Amino acid sequence: MNQQITSFLTSSLFLFCLALPAKSETVLERIQRTGVLKVAIREDAPPFGYIDANNNLQGYCLDFFAVLEKQLSKNLERNTLSIKLLKSTPTNRFSLISKNIVDLECGPNTIRSDIPEDTDFSTSFFVTGTQFLIKQNSRDRLEIEQDLNNMRLGVINRTTTEKFIAERYPLATIQRFSGVKARIRGIQAVEQNKLDAMVSDGILLRAQAQQQGLSSSEYPLIPEIPLSCDRYGMIIKGNDSQWQDFINSVINSLEAVNLSNTWFGRLFNYTQAAQSFCE
User: Fold this and answer.
1) Domains of the chain
2) pLDDT digits (tens, 9 = 90+) for 194-203
3) Please, which residues have CB within 8 angstroms of residue 54's CB and are 6 or more apart in sequence?
4) What is the DSSP letter of 101?
5) Residue 8 has pLDDT above 50, yes or no
6) What is the pLDDT of residues 169-192, one digit of tens each?
7) Confidence of residue 90 (pLDDT cuts 50, 70, 90)
8) Are residues 105 and 163 in contact, defined by beta-carbon separation less than 8 angstroms?
9) Is the dihedral of CA 155, 156, 157, 159 positive or negative?
10) What letters, b where the CB count within 10 A reaches 16 and e where it falls short, cover 139-172?
11) Burial (0-12, 13-18, 19+ Cβ within 10 Å), 213
């Protein structure tokens, strides 16, 4: 009888163990095991990630990855650590994370709640908001407090700005741009008088306009105080508090703060206005 009971209990325990889900490997555990950090960066979003005149990848995010690698090397028990760098877009940035293709995506990602399952945001590392890039001589025609009836506004397709502008200005004529050159083509359309304004996050408009040789005096941003408050966060894996805490600690580190000052310091007046509005 005892043998039968023992056999039954052993079999039941074995079946119960088989039914338990295997503990998933955390991001830090996988990096420790493989020695590879997988990250993604935009190529169309200066100053966060962009291709310069010499066809080289540049941007705040690229330098942030170097800071992250340094901090990981200190915290993990590995002699070597390599970075696998992939390109992200507004369309694939969340799927890169949810499908475990990369561990972190850095770019102008507005922190919000309606995001895919198994993804999350880090703490905020930058604050901006919705603004209009216009020609100086058309300033008087764009009364943004009004309904902008028949005004031609450019937006980037499938962004929070597109939704915001469509809801706020339903009588405006909205032209949607897609692809890695969407913001470039939108600003060019303003130059060519095909649009009254290109609407996007102010930091992205100003940085891209500078790359295209357009001065802030001839192509200002309005209004001075953004219409919305958009906090940027890194996209990371959901339900992995250890990885999220680590990324947040790097963002808040002195080295990362100094990096932000290096990249965004020349835009202090603009960033200060957005920061004050959001606070």
Assistant:
1) 27-127+231-278 (3.40.190.10), 130-222 (3.40.190.10)
2) 999 999 999 9
3) none
4) S
5) no
6) 999 999 999 988 999 999 999 999
7) confident
8) no
9) negative
10) eeebebeeebeebbbbbbeebbbbebbeeebeeb
11) exposed
Q: Calculate mean pLDDT across residues 218-247.
A: 94
Token output for 171 = 């009588």
pTM of the model: 0.84
Angle, CA of 191, 193 and 196, to the nearest 5°: 100
Number of Cβ within a 10 Å radius of residue 7: 10
d(CA 228, CA 243): 29
Map 213-228 to HEC letters: CCCCCCCCEECCCCCC
Question: Does residue 14 register a pLDDT over 60?
Answer: no
Tokens of 51: 């291709």
Bridge partner residues of 230 (DSSP): 128
- Rounded Cα gap, residues 128 and 277, in angstroms: 9
Which tokens sit at 7?
């056999």
